[in-house]
Amino acid sequence: MKALIQRVAHASVTVDAVCVGEIEQGVLAYIGLGHDDTLAHAKRMIDKILGYRIFENTTDENKRGLLDLNVEQVGGGLLLVSQFTLMARTQKGRRPDFGDAMPPDAARDLFAELVEYAKARYPNVATGQFGANMQVSSTNDGPLNFILEIN
Q: What is the pTM assigned to this prediction?
């Protein structure tokens, strides 16, 4: 399982001209699911995203400016977007190979469980729409982007 996370000032997902998910300050997380991923992997990924310290501490004089706080500590939002292309093999050729991505039906179920777990763990969670053509808009804050992996 892979996640591309971005610290954002604002992010939203639109499908067919309708906003289906939106957050203000927080984390936009694109989630890629692989063949062998399980609910246990999904839970570990959500825990890692929620605990990942990518926000600056602006109140503690000794830690000012350090990436010392996580999204929970700043009360930010979490926007989860399924993104099978993160699982692409790109080492050879000029076309991505998606053979490592979980098949769509299984991925839909696991992504739904991941979202359910995230919402149980944290109150400010929004999502895109699985399998839809989504327009994702974001204002990256920093910019700060990180790739997280769970095996």
A: 0.94
